[in-house]
Amino acid sequence: VPSTHIAILGSTGSIGTAALDVLSTLGDPWRATALTTHSRIDLLIEQARRFKVPRVVVTGPEPTPSHRATLKSLGCQLLLGEAGLREVAAAPEPGTVLAAIVGAAGLPPVLAAVAHGKRIALANKESLVIAGSLLMPLARSTGAEILPVDSEHSAIFQALASGKRSEVRKLILTASGGPFRSTPAETMAAATAAQALDHPTWKMGGKITIDSATLFNKAFEMLEARWLFDIHPDSIEIVIHPQSIVHSMVEFNDGSTLAQLSPPDMRLPIQYALTYPDRAPCPSPPMDWTRPHTLTFEPPDRLKFPSLDLAFHAARTDGPSGGTLSAVMNAANEVAVEAFLAGHIRFGRITPLVAAAMDHHQLAPLTHDPTLEQLLAADAAARAFVRTRLAQ
Ligand code: NDP
Ligand code: MG
Known about the structure:
It contains 16 helices and eleven strands. The chain is α/β, with parallel strands linked by helices. Helix 6 links the parallel strand 6 (119-122) and strand 7. Helix 5 runs parallel beside helix 6, helix 11 (216-228) packs parallel to helix 13 (307-318) and helix 14 (325-341) runs antiparallel to helix 15. The chain starts with a strand and ends with a helix.
């Protein structure tokens, strides 16, 4: 059921600010019950003022006395840390939690929102990559709805409405191919953060932009799709579509393929996750068919981008009840991307570091149907492994 009261976790990020734009066009009675930031407190305060938001959460550096005084004058309650995130996600208001924190840090409030039977508009794909095997059954038992914000999954979600689940043959995830699609492998390996951050079609936060350049983003999206749509990884195909107009497709058992098209703008999938099953006018522009368009599709280069096969390997190894290898892949990637963005390693080291962490993890007996504690332990061990490698 759609609710007009939304908690926006990660409101100062790329998705968070786009979501506030959506809320302002939807207008009354849509409103934000809480906003959160890690470190951009000034922007958070400006958002709280503009949208008259009663509660905010800061998870990073302590707010200064002057920040606290400003929030107090706005009548805005300040909460801190992961406990604050969980509290605003689980509170009676909101009905919908927009999960737009980046990385594994987004998991605790998503778990809290699912446990409390909320609608979760999920941008934080890492939650499902790590803990899809826990979140999906928990959502079934609490009645929580997990609706995709990721544009590919929103496209699939919309196309799935054209048939029955038993009639779905495969899901086709489209990928822009990122900034290095036609860059020779050796040049790509030496790329700097500035080059990798120059995405051809999407403006996004730093981490996901690097993930788009390694194709780990698509790798994670395959794992996200496997849990969200309860589909076998072998029935998910990845196709490079540089224009980012066809956001993904569903092939049915009669060979009919349905696609969703729109210019690359996250406000549409964000809004659809909030208003579903309804639609409403959206600030993002529709396709302009008075202009010529060329849409192209090609298979990915799996040798140049081993991230894709690493994810399929993780999915098969974890198996139908889930495991810890996907969580290791995610955690290792977070640390490697952080090191790359800080200028400590070159682009070509990211994927081998993740692969090494996964190899190392597989020296121990495999875990299936993991508990949260086992997932968090695997995550922590993978981070420590990559940090040790980086220090060598
Ligand atoms: P951004 O980096 O732009 O924003 C991330 C948000 O999370 C910010 O509000 C940030 O605060 C906050 N944050 C960062 N670290 C922490 C932490 N440790 N604890 C709590 N909060 C934290 O990312 P995006 O908006 O690009 O992406 C957010 C999520 O959405 C990711 O999971 C991404 O994969 C997914 N997504 C994004 C798309 C996009 O177009 N951007 C498309 C599809 C999915 P601060 O401002 O202080 O850094
Ligand atoms: Mg996506």
